[in-house]
From TrEMBL:
<dbReference type="InterPro" id="IPR001958">
    <property type="entry name" value="Tet-R_TetA/multi-R_MdtG-like"/>
</dbReference>
<dbReference type="GO" id="GO:0022857">
    <property type="term" value="F:transmembrane transporter activity"/>
</dbReference>
<keyword id="KW-0472">Membrane</keyword>
<feature type="domain" description="Major facilitator superfamily (MFS) profile">
    <location>
        <begin position="1"/>
        <end position="388"/>
    </location>
</feature>
<feature type="transmembrane region" description="Helical">
    <location>
        <begin position="170"/>
        <end position="188"/>
    </location>
</feature>
<feature type="transmembrane region" description="Helical">
    <location>
        <begin position="300"/>
        <end position="322"/>
    </location>
</feature>
<feature type="transmembrane region" description="Helical">
    <location>
        <begin position="37"/>
        <end position="57"/>
    </location>
</feature>
<feature type="transmembrane region" description="Helical">
    <location>
        <begin position="209"/>
        <end position="235"/>
    </location>
</feature>
<feature type="transmembrane region" description="Helical">
    <location>
        <begin position="69"/>
        <end position="93"/>
    </location>
</feature>
<keyword id="KW-0812">Transmembrane</keyword>
<dbReference type="InterPro" id="IPR011701">
    <property type="entry name" value="MFS"/>
</dbReference>
<protein>
    <submittedName>
        <fullName>MFS transporter</fullName>
    </submittedName>
</protein>
<feature type="transmembrane region" description="Helical">
    <location>
        <begin position="99"/>
        <end position="119"/>
    </location>
</feature>
<keyword id="KW-1133">Transmembrane helix</keyword>
<dbReference type="InterPro" id="IPR036259">
    <property type="entry name" value="MFS_trans_sf"/>
</dbReference>
<feature type="transmembrane region" description="Helical">
    <location>
        <begin position="364"/>
        <end position="383"/>
    </location>
</feature>
<feature type="transmembrane region" description="Helical">
    <location>
        <begin position="7"/>
        <end position="25"/>
    </location>
</feature>
Amino acid sequence: MKEIKILMIVNVLCISAMMAFLAVVGPIIRELHLEEWHAGLTVAIAGVLWVLLSRYWGRKSDIVGRKPILVIGVAGVAISYLVLAIFIDNAIISPPAVIVSLFILILTRGGIGAFYSAITPVSNALIADHIEKEKRTGYIAKLAASSGIGMVIGPPIGGYLANFGLSTPLYTFAILPLLGTIALYMILPHEKPVTTEKTPILKVFDERLRIPMFAAFITMFSIVTAQVCLGFYIIDKFGLDSLKAAEMTGYILACVGFSFIISQILVSKSKIEATKLLKYGAFIGMVGYILVFLMNSELILTLGLCLGAFGMGILFPAYQTLAVNLVKKEEQGASAGTVSAAQGIGMIIGPLASTIIYKLDPTAPFILVSLLFFLLGIISFKYDRKERC
């Protein structure tokens, strides 16, 4: 499948840009005199739009084709990110009222979430269009591995560039999704739609998708909880200033991305069934986050987050593969969008819940994440046994 290469490139470009922002979001929130829950709110709003639009993008790609929706999605991310960069640059020099800063952050982060929600489900549906069921997990793992590459190159560069000003990495990375848009438009071939408007719409809570939706929700809940809280956790636990915290956050997230890539490579080369991957990933993630809340050094913190990322790297292709394998061809875009919407719900609840309980105890969000992974592991274990009976 030659299209996988351009899909991987676009994922690298978009994810590296988004992850570079995560490396500086904590310090930016502090510099703009906002509070931790404001960061959680901006991510949650992006999650709301993700939930509302993922099914729409997936269904629309079934009707009009994969390429137009992918181009629109990546272009929207590029424009939203550029507006965010321009605002942060000016706001750091002369901070506006808190309500203004919060509004602009919600608007731009919301735009990023709204358009990025098209990329993953439509890419997975495109893979399902060309690859037989038995090989889809490997291809989806390759796509997820490209996201891991973005996770690796984005944070350290973003953290390093923060030494020249918190807006510097934002300007640097704003152009990357734009390059992805151009590449998609020029390289990706146009193909006929797989269905029409008259085809019955897949139900939101279709019983075939309950397990992958649940796995998607918990996995994304765990990811955004760790991402949103990490910058604050480093500042409060190690007593670092904003710039040093941004740099350390960047390097830790780079290590996390590297771990994510390794697990994706292993999954892409393995022939393990998606149902088994679900339980393996959940229990590995649980162990990782237990280390995080028990940590007493930067090394243990990094090790725990890397182990958690390794588990999540296994989970992603598992539930994404199930999403397209369990439905008919004309439902694959809508199905991938439905499961992606479940990820968005995790984005909504995760940052809000984690930043609220962070105020109670900095370790509380990580304890919650480990418990959720344990729950997912138990459910996945029972699901795998049921499938074999």
